[in-house]
């Protein structure tokens, strides 16, 4: 009979005590905070409640989470306002705003992807059509007047650079021989 050797101990119960190491505190806080946010979302979905959650990290940074929004729940709390039963207008407005925002992000990303695809097509067409399209390889007979003038300018620049480099090397060699 073969035994199945587990590599991990699985999910273990964690003893509730203060964590001493600062790094471990921050990591645990971050993980548990996201878990609490999930539970808050579930509670609001299941019960239709408005919730405001505020806490401070071990480093002193404040975190807040509110459904439908932090402001609306805080205003209700401080003003002792109670909404009429089944009034989901704020939640619906918040959801519509979020949907519009996500749609806008999607549209922007789609446009960027389309633009990248168009650029890729253009570059592919240019690469496939470039057999002898490099400026120094194009037959002179196929160039128009403007292209010939540009070619002459490039050759002139290269010749000037060649003379400058050559004269510097000759001067350096003559100085070294003296």
UniProtKB/TrEMBL annotation:
Name where it's found: Nucleus
| Family annotation (InterPro entries) | TF_MADSbox (IPR002100), TF_MADSbox_sf (IPR036879)
Q: Name one Pfam family in it.
A: SRF-TF
Q: What is this protein called?
A: MADS-box domain-containing protein
Indicate the segments annotated as coiled coil, or none if absent.
Answer: none
Organism per entry: Hibiscus sabdariffa
Q: Which top-rank group of organisms is this from?
A: Eukaryota
Domain MADS-box, chain residue ranges per copy: 9-69
State the UniProt keywords alphabetically. DNA-binding, Nucleus, Transcription, Transcription regulation
What broad class describes the main subcellular location of this protein? nucleus
């Amino acid at each position: 009979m073969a035994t199945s050797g587990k590599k991990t101990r699985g999910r273990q119960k964690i003893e509730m005590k203060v964590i001493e190491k600062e790094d471990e505190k921050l990591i645990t806080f971050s993980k548990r905070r996201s878990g609490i946010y999930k539970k808050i979302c579930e509670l609001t979905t299941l019960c239709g409640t408005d919730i405001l959650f505020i806490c401070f990290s071990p480093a002193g940074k404040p975190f807040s989470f509110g459904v439908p929004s932090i402001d609306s729940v805080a205003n209700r709390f401080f003003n002792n306002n109670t909404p009429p039963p089944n009034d989901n207008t704020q939640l619906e407005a918040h959801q519509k705003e979020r949907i519009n925002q996500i749609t806008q992000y999607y549209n922007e990303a789609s446009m960027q992807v389309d633009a990248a695809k168009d650029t890729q097509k253009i570059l592919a067409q240019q690469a496939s059509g470039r057999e002898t399209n490099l400026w120094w390889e194009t037959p002179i007979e196929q160039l128009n007047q403007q292209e010939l003038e540009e070619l002459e300018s490039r050759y002139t620049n290269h010749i000037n650079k060649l003379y400058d480099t050559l004269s510097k090397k000759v001067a350096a060699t003559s100085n070294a021989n003296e």
